Structures are given as C-alpha cells and as structure tokens.
Amino acid sequence: MSSLGRDAGCLGVSRPCSPFGDDFLFKFLVIGNAGTGKSCLLHQFIEKKFKDDSNHTIGVEFGSKIINVGGKYVKLQIWDTAGQERFRSVTRSYYRGAAGALLVYDITSRETYNALTNWLTDARMLASQNIVIILCGNKKDLDTDREVTFLEASRFAQENELMFLETSALTGENVEEAFVQCARKILNKIESGELDPERMGSGIQYGDAALRQLRSPRRAQAPSAQECGC
Ligand code: GDP
Ligand code: MG
Predict the structure, then answer these.
(1) By C-alpha distance, which of 185, 176, 192 is closest to 157?
(2) Which of 69, 115, 119, 184 gives 20 to 30 Å between its CA and that of 191?
(3) Backbone angles phi, psi at 62, to 5 degrees
(4) What's the pTM value of the predicted model, to 2 decimals?
(5) Model pLDDT for residues 145-161, shown as the tens digit of each residue
(6) What does the similarity note say (predicted)?
C-alpha cells in the first residue's frame, strides 16, 4: 500500500513529546467495514475534532501520536485502511507487524457487527496471533438508531478475548481511551514477558536504547546516540 505514510495523507505527529525520546513505538491498525467511522476515529484521536464530510483536504491514511501511559512515552503509529476495505482488498502488508488494532463496527448497523469475525480472523492470521485488539462500537451518539446492544457486543468481546468500548468519533467519547487502553495492555504484556518486543514482527520498537539495556542486561549494547522519535 504505497500511499500510506506519505506526507500528503499524513496527519502528522501530535505533541507532547518526551524530552528523553519515546520509550516505545507501537504499530496500530484500524480495521472494520467501510462507513463505520474508522477515519473519523483516527482524526478525532489525533486532531481532537470531528472530521466532517466537507473536509476532503486531509486524506486520513496514517497518523502518529505520542501518549503517556503510566509514565512511559509511547508513540503510536496508526494505519488507516485508506478506503481499501470498500473493495475487500486490505493487503497483507497493511497487517504485517501490527502490535495493536481497533476493530470497529457501527452500533447502528448489524451488518458491520456481523462482519467482525472475518476481520478478527484476518487480523490474527495476517498480523499476529498476539495482536492486542480493542473492539469499538462506534457512533455511540446515535443511540436511538441502535441495532446492536452493548450487552451482546460485550459478550462477543469476552468470547474472543477482546477489550471493548463504545465510542463516538463525533463527540470524542472514549476515543482516546480506546487507543490508550490498547497501548496499556501491550505494555503490560511486555512487562509480564508475554510479549517480546525483540521478536521480529512484534510491531513494537524501543525508542530508547538505554531502556533496552535496563530491561535485558545480557543483550545490552553500548548506549547509542538517542533518537527523538518526534
Ligand atoms: P470509514 O469508512 O470506516 O473510514 O468511515 P468514515 O470515518 O469515513 O465515516 C463514515 C461516515 O460515518 C461519515 O459520514 C462520518 O461522518 C460518520 N461518522 C463517523 N463516526 C461517527 C460517529 O461517531 N457518530 C456519527 N453520528 N457519525 C459518524
Ligand atoms: Mg476511512
């Protein structure tokens, strides 16, 4: 997917940034049927505002933002499908090496909910079995048009080992929380040893060589000049 990450389609990096460089970099995906609000969720997270339809100037394909999770600076590098899902042609390279994903359906569309199993299979097969996924029931603000109850979606999430939140890219409700909860779970897994950031394709990179030295003294290398990821 050559267009992803180009400046033209990039929302840019959102501050604040750690003065010491970022501790980690996680690759995140946003997946789910077309029209569920994936691009709006990404836009709301990065820009803190709703992307209204008249604004076509920003092609939301890729964005990054630094967040602070429990004192650690994590740079999220987030990939949006850039409309590929409309043609059911989301490529392997899109999934490769992702550490986390937002799996999005629209609470007012049962069809988008019914498609979740397929998205989940693809994510686990094409990204990693260990990918940390948060299910997002988006358009929470349209409660009167709801076709999927909170309860059934939370059961689905439990059965499939997903975290779950209902979100609104329109009001911003739970948008930041979705990204942060997913990042927190990945950090917890790193700390417990369940996830190894040094494994190829983990979707995780250290932003700070010194941190790597602290965490695994046997594999320590001489500290290199620190790169600020911002
Ligand atoms: P994508 O195809 O999954 O990227 O979906 P978009 O982000 O392009 O959004 C599809 C449509 O849903 C657009 O008309 C948005 O304005 C609308 N939309 C997205 N998120 C929300 C939301 O949280 N609430 C409401 N009411 N509309 C939303
Ligand atoms: Mg989109």
Answers:
(1) 185
(2) 119
(3) -160, 140
(4) 0.83
(5) 999 999 999 999 999 99
(6) Belongs to the small GTPase superfamily. Rab family.
- Nearest ligand, measured from the Cα of 167: 1
- Give dist(CA 38, CA 102) in Å, integer: 9
Which residue's C-alpha comes closest to atom 9 of ligand 1? 37
CA proximity to 120, closest of 87, 142, 166, 153:
153
CA of 36, closest atom in ligand 1: 3
Region class of 33: left (phi > 0), else alpha (psi between -120 and 50), else beta:
beta
User: What is the model's pLDDT at position 128?
Assistant: 85
Cβ atoms of residues 18 and 73 within 8 Å: yes
The per-residue b/e assignment along 15-40, b for 16 or more CB within 10 angstroms, e otherwise, is: eebbeebbbbbbbbbbbbbeebbbbb
Residue 86 has, within 13 A of its CA and on its CB side, a CA count of 7
Q: Which residues line ligand 1 (CB under 6 A)?
A: 34-40, 53, 138-139, 141-142, 168-170
CA 66 / ligand 2 centre spacing (Å): 22
User: Closest by alpha carbon to 162, among 193, 124, 188?
Assistant: 124
The reported pLDDT for the residue numbered 37 is 95
Both tokens of 111, joined, read 């069809």
For residue 33, the ligand 1 atom closest to its alpha carbon is 3
pLDDT attached to residue 32: 96
Q: Both tokens of residue 185?
A: 């779970």
Closest atom, ligand 1, to C-alpha of 42? 7
